[in-house]
Design goal:
Blueprint: H1 11-19, H2 28-41, H3 46-59, H4 65-68, H5 73-80, H6 89-109, H7 112-117, E1 125-126, H8 140-151, H9 159-168, E2 172-173
Parallel strand pairs: 1-2
Helix pairs in contact: 2-3, 2-6, 2-9, 8-9
């Protein structure tokens, strides 16, 4: 049995749930990928982002923050013409801004992972949700994380998106108790 939010007939979603969602990630490259994707998802469904994930990988230099941080107006205009991604100027510009801020945090903390995991005291939070109704929109740790990101100049990473990010990369284990991925 899987978490109730996973569509039965969507293999991308099933694979994402079974192989990635909730698995602790410490690799900065993977973390940056999820930050780009989560911020692009704001206001949209995750299914849309999953469908476009490989297009994002190509369009955003394999999620290399050093390369994305150097994107100019020329690259922005090219991205705005790319039907394989979400063509929202504010979200595209946010990805570039966030890449710059990401590099600043790496410089300050050694890794972005070290910075990010401090918000959960370096250990995944484990909830015991049984149904979809049990999931909150955000948690206090996501509010603190989001506020710190905002203070540092990040865009499109409010507390709801930060909570989704924390779930995606395993800072929070929110598999429902009846899901095969839930571990006691």
């Amino acid at each position: 049995m899987r978490c109730p939010w996973v569509p039965d007939k969507n293999q991308e979603y099933i694979d994402y749930h079974d192989k990635e969602w909730g698995v602790p990630v410490k690799d900065d490259a993977k973390i940056f990928e999820f930050l780009v994707l989560e911020s692009a998802q704001a206001g949209l469904s995750w299914a849309i982002v999953l469908k476009k994930r490989e297009n994002y990988r190509k369009a955003f230099a394999s999620f290399d923050p050093k390369k994305v941080a150097k994107f100019s107006e020329k690259e922005i205009n090219k991205l705005l013409q790319n039907s394989g991604i979400i063509r929202n100027r504010a979200k595209i510009e946010a990805a570039i801004t966030n890449a710059k801020r990401f590099l600043e945090i790496q410089k300050e903390f050694g890794t972005f992972s070290k910075y990010m995991w401090q918000f959960v005291k370096n250990k995944p939070i484990k909830h015991k949700f049984k149904t979809l109704r049990d999931y909150p929109e955000k948690i206090k740790e996501a509010e603190v994380f989001s506020a710190d990101l905002k203070k540092r100049g990040f865009k499109f990473l409010g507390p709801v998106i930060c909570y989704a990010h924390m779930q995606a990369i395993g800072m929070v284990n929110d598999h429902t108790t009846n899901c095969f991925k839930y571990k006691k």
